[in-house]
Amino acid sequence: MVLYLISYIVNMNIKFNLKFYLSTFFLMLVMNFSSIGVNYSQVLFNKKKVDFKSIRSQENSFTDFIVTNTGEKVEFILRADVSRNVIVKYSTKKIFPDSSAIIRVKYVSTKPTDFNESIKLYFGSTINPIILNIKGQTQYTENGLSASCPDFSNTASAKSNTSDVEVLVIDKNSQKPISNAMVIFYATPWNVEKCRTDRNGLCNPTISIGYHFFEANSDGYLPSVVQQAVKLGYTKVIIELEPKIDEELEVGSTPKDEVLEEEPVQNKEEYVVDETIEVIVPEIISPTNVPIEDIVNGKLSTSTYKPNNIVFLLDVSTSMGMSGRMGILKSAMIELVKVMRDVDLLSVVTYSSKAEILLTALPGNNQEKISEVIFELEAGGLTAGGKGLDLAYQIAEDNFIKNGNNHVYIATDGAFNVGGKASSMLKKISSKSEKGVNLSVVGVKSPYQIEKELKKMSVRGGGVFTKVDESEDSKSSVLNLIKLHSYMR
For the CA atoms of 247, 249, 251, 254, what is the dihedral angle to 10 degrees? Predict the structure, then answer.
C-alpha cells in the first residue's frame, strides 16, 4: 500500500511538471510567432478584394488570388478560415523567395443569393491573418455536398488564372498604330514582363488576372503608363503615345491639351506668387549626381544614407488622371518602395477637393501595405493643396528624425491652390525648412508656364524641383531625390 502511494505521488508530480513545461514551451512559441508577424511579414497579394457581380456558371464561380513571397526566406501558407459556402485551394503551400502561389477561392450556393465573404489566411511569417474579401450575387447553384473547386492539375482550370490580352499602341494625334513599340506590364514591381508590337501596333501576351500597369515606349514618343484590370477570357488595352516636341513652345503660348485639363477653382485664390518677393535661386545639385554604389541586398545602404522621414503630398485632382500622369506617379513610388528600409518612415497625404491622410509614418519594410495604398490611388476633384500641405508638415514634424532626412515631397501636374495668400505660404515653407523639414516638388508632366512657381516653392523649402515627363525618368528621378537628400556627406 505504501509503495502504491509513493508511486501515485511520483506520477502526479511528473504530470504536473510535464504540463508546466509544455505550457511554457507553447507560450514561448506563440510569443515568437507573434514577434515574427509584427516585424517580418513578407507576402504581397495582387489583389485582396473581388466583386463577382453576377455568377451565372461554373466558369466564373471562382477567382484566383496571386501571392508573392518578397522576403528572403521560404514562406508557408498554414490555413484559411472560411464559412461553409467557401472552398479554397492552393497551387502550393510552400512559397520560395521571389516566387508566387495561386490561392483559388470558390463560392458555393444552393440557392440564388447575395454574398459577402471574408477569407482569413494564416502564414508562417505572421500570427495575424491576412483578410481577403469576395462578394457578388449568385444565380448559379450547386449541390453543397458535391460542389468542388476546379483543380490546378486540370488544363482548363490551370489557365483560369490567366487571360489573353491584346495591347494596341497608337499615336495620340493620328490614332495610327505604332510598330516595334516596347510594352512593359506588371501587377507588382517584382514580376515584370515585356513584348513588342507588330506592324499593326499589336502584341498579345497571356498574363495573370488582376490589375496591371501597362507601359509603352517608342522612339520619337513620350512613354505612357495606364492601369487596367485584366479579366477572365479576353482583355483589350489601348495605349496612346504623344509625339515628342523638339522645340519648346514660345513664351505666352498655351498647349491645347493643357487648356482642356485646367480645373475650375471655387472661391479660392490660385497659387500666384507676388512678383515683388525676392527669390534667390541657389545652385541646385542635379538628382542624377548621386553615388550609384549605394544599394546593398536590394535596399539603401545604411552606411551611405541617413534614415528618411518622407511625407509624400500627392495631387490626385482630375487632371492627374489624364495623359498617363497617375500611372507615372505610381510607377515612381513603387520603385522607391522596393529599396526602403525599416529605419525609413513613409507617410502619404493626398489632396484634390479635400486633403486626406492615407499613411502615417509606416516603416519602409511594410512593402505590402504601402504598395496597396499606391495601387489604389485614383484621380478626381479640384486642387486643395494648402490644406494638404498643412497636414504633410504636421506629420513630418510629429515623426521628426534627428540627423535624418525630414522631407515633404509634393507631386503635382500644375497650379497649387493654397486657399490663401501665396506669400504667406512661401514664408511658411521657409520657416519649416529652417526648423529642419525641407520641401521638394516633382512636376508630373507639368506645363512649363507653372514650373516657375513650383521652383520657387522648392527653393524656399530648401529642396529641389524636378520635372517628370517620361515614366523611366520618373522611376529614377524620384528615387534619386531621396538619395540626394539622405546622402551622408
Answer: -170
